[in-house]
Amino acid sequence: TLFRSQQPGSFCGITRACTALFTYIVNNLNHKFELREYQKEAFQNFITYFEDDRFNHNKQIWTLFHSATGSGKTLIMAGLILYLYKKGYRNFIFFVNQSNIVAKTKENFKNEYSSKFLFERKIVIDRRTVEINEVKSFQNIDDTSDDINILFTTIQDLHGKLNNITEYSVSYEDFDDKKIVLISDEAHHINAATKKKLSAAEK
Q1: Beta-bridge partners for 125
Q2: Residue 158: which of 173, 148, 169 has the closest Cα?
Q3: What's the rounded Cα separation, in Å, for the pair 151 and 185?
Q4: How confident is the model at residue 5 (pLDDT cuts 50, 70, 90)?
Q5: pLDDT tens-digit profile of 133-155?
Q6: What angle do CA 174, 198, 160 make, to 5 degrees?
Q7: Which residues, 6 or more positions from 138, have their beta carbon under 8 angstroms from its beta carbon?
Q8: pLDDT tens column, 11-36
Q9: How many CB atoms within 10 Å of residue 45?
Q10: Please, are residues 81 and 72 in contact by the beta-carbon 8 Å criterion?
Q11: Confidence (pTM)
């Protein structure tokens, strides 16, 4: 694996290409959040894994960031959304296990007046201003859209919508013709087999 074969800081972080990528990520994240060294290494690890055919030869990109509560994993996710935008991805599903976490996540991603807002107020990539849009599905999104489109949801709600299709809801067909990135926060709670009976709030 990448973890076993490389040491942090010994790969992507020292190349010009990675430095350029890293610069526009940092420039578009909220400057009041100073990146810690392990967050920088997380970016370097992901970019290396994504870019290097030795690690992603099957093109199935599955990564897990495992760190303590409050260590800044959501900021890493925000930065990687910017990186994946640069790589041509526009549509993202951000799913969690509790509805109250969905609300907090929306605040962090959308409300520029929130104390935990993750981005700079003006996101600029390739001299273009990029907006972050909250969406309910990807059906009516123009393929030429140059904004970031995020569907915020719980795993329970996402499962229900995928298996009980309604008009304008997300569907399995969306994955056939669109590049969609799935991001899970608190992923250790997602598998129902590891959870106790859902509370009323989680339902």
Answers
A1: 128
A2: 169
A3: 13
A4: very low
A5: 999 888 878 777 789 999 999 88
A6: 20
A7: 91, 149, 151, 170, 174, 178, 180
A8: 454 455 566 667 889 899 999 998 88
A9: 21
A10: no
A11: 0.80
